[in-house]
Amino acid sequence: MSVPGSNLSPPPTPPPEMPASFAEWRFQPIPQAECVEAYRPGGYHPVHFGDYFHNRRYQVINKLGYGQYSTVWLARDIQVSEFVALKIKTAKDSIDDREVAVLNHLNTSRASSIIGSEHVVCLKDSFYHQGPNGKHLCLVFELLGDNIYSVLEGYSYETTGSERTLTKFPKPIAKRILKNVLLGLNFLHQNGVVHGDLQPGNFLSSIKGLDSLRPADIEVKSQEAADEFELQEAVVEVERLDGKLDKWAPKYLAMPQSLVESDQWPVFPIKISDLGAATLTLEALTAKTPVMPIGLRSPELILNSHPLDTYIDIWSFGCLMFEMFVGKKLLAVMPLMPGSNIDNRNDDNLLQMHQILGPLPENLLVKWTRSGKYFRPGSREHYNSLIEGPEGIPNLGPNMEAMIRQAVTEEEEAGVIISLLREMLNYDPLKRPSALEIMKNSFWDDDGET
């Protein structure tokens, strides 16, 4: 509720740091959108429908999505009359950004003989935009659809008529998705790029009929329409708790809108996106904070036991291959929330590896300084140091092989999948196969078109 007279004087500039408590918030939280409090110096750039960027070349039409470090918009490239995805990074994340360098490096290799380029998102343009919260790096990409799990969720609702969500794709479709991702990984790795955040949210579907889509087919949502609440389902008004005008935040937050029909499977080719965590292998790879979900992190990444390289992506791909065929996560670690203890989450992940994939080798246990909480000295026997006994150690049930055989009924195919996963999930990163070596397995031969 506005305080009478409180909007007569302008509000102070918010600090770049996020508020430590809700008592310091300027706005009411808005669900299903980016954190409204992140619209502050160093944070998101406020965007409205109809806004123009880069000398009026790109006009914002709709919102596609958002992440911790950027918002993504459907835009029209007026110069060439086509639709694009416009990614606007936070001002803080635009400083010393490496994503654009990696993407430009990949663009120079697209005409080479390295297979898989069509399975990695293509950068079309980049520029900087000055706004009330700072200078923002803007990346223009080819337009793609939803990530594969959003497609699965939408398809589940349309086909089942209920809130029950299918946990996995039919096996032939899962296999084809994985083959597409492998091809994209091969292109990245052959060009010396480590993705660093390989997860389903970064596997995007193509859009059916995009080549024939005309600007007249999509209505440009205007600022005036939003102001008049003609788009009530697409936007939520942003108001300060004190009633003052806020120049750092937009007038409304737009809800992401899907461009993919909800009653269809992913449109191929699938493409790997979001190279914000990517690194060139030729650069000096110092220890950096991982951004991928903890359950997809390799043991050497958690324990910083080996220089970063392409094999961390291979481990993540192995975890995802299990997930696509079984319909559940291989290592089900709770997500890292604000205030969570990263050490406890890492311990959970390593313990699950130990129980599901097999005992961790001695060289990793030595690096795991907290392993004494869970194992007796000189022993692989589980041990709870708080009660000096095995009680309290969760039993995670069957190992990886048993879960695969339960989900994949054909014995020979299950055996091939297990063999591939054992290679990819080798505790020794130097013994994991490359994406190209994985693709050479005859398992992928009958996946259909790539």
TrEMBL record:
The keyword ATP-binding applies. Its EC number is 2.7.11.1. It comes from the Eukaryota. This is non-specific serine/threonine protein kinase. It is an enzyme of class 2 (transferase). One of its GO terms (molecular function) is ATP binding. The keyword ATP-binding applies. SUPFAM superfamilies: Protein kinase-like (PK-like). It catalyses: L-seryl-[protein] + ATP = O-phospho-L-seryl-[protein] + ADP + H(+); L-threonyl-[protein] + ATP = O-phospho-L-threonyl-[protein] + ADP + H(+). Residues 58-444 form the Protein kinase domain. GO terms for biological process: regulation of mRNA processing; spliceosomal complex assembly. Keywords: ATP-binding, Kinase, Nucleotide-binding, Serine/threonine-protein kinase, Transferase. InterPro entries: Kinase-like_dom_sf, Prot_kinase_dom, Protein_kinase_ATP_BS, SRPK. ATP binds at residue 87.
